[in-house]
Q: What sequence folds into this?
């Protein structure tokens, strides 16, 4: 292969990679933004606009809503599957007494169908991942 052809090939593959990355990034941003909107609408009343558990409805609950900016244990990756399961709520057996948080899986499925319910819960989890408190080592 001559040099010019190699250069063109490298250029084209770099361009392609850039495009794929840009697309992936805008998808990512899309989920987080969608999750943020869902969060403000459905979750902030209890968990607070900032996710720290101080929403206006928190005082009327027996269990204080947990701080959602601290779901990621130090030095570990964000537990996205656990978080999605908790939000969905249909397979979760509460440790003590009954759960106070609504079962969002059932609510979103009734309103939007199975597939959109899944993507809503995924978006919510990605939003929560984005608001995790950064811990200094
Ligand atoms: C009615 C108040 C209320 C609303 C609304 C609510 N939550 Fe909760 N949430 C709670 C409470 C209380 C708990 C603690 C478990 C329990 O008692 O149900 C909890 C627990 C959680 C947990 C588990 C945290 C952990 O440490 O494992 C997650 C994640 C969560 N909520 C996310 C959400 C999301 C996302 C929404 C919106 C779709 C939402 N919550 C809406 C009250 C609420």
A:
């Amino acid at each position: 292969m001559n040099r010019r052809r190699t250069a063109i090939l490298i250029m084209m593959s770099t361009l392609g990679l850039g495009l794929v990355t840009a697309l992936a990034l805008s998808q990512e941003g899309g989920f987080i933004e969608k999750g943020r909107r869902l969060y403000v609408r459905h979750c902030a009343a209890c968990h607070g606009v900032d996710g720290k558990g101080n929403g206006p409805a928190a005082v009327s609950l027996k269990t204080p809503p947990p701080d959602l900016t601290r779901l990621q244990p130090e030095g570990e990756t964000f537990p996205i599957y656990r978080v999605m399961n908790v939000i969905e709520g249909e397979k979760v057996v509460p440790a003590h007494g009954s759960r106070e948080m609504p079962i969002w899986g059932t609510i979103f499925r009734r309103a939007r169908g199975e597939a959109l319910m899944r993507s809503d819960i995924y978006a919510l989890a990605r939003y929560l991942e984005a608001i995790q408190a950064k811990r200094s080592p």
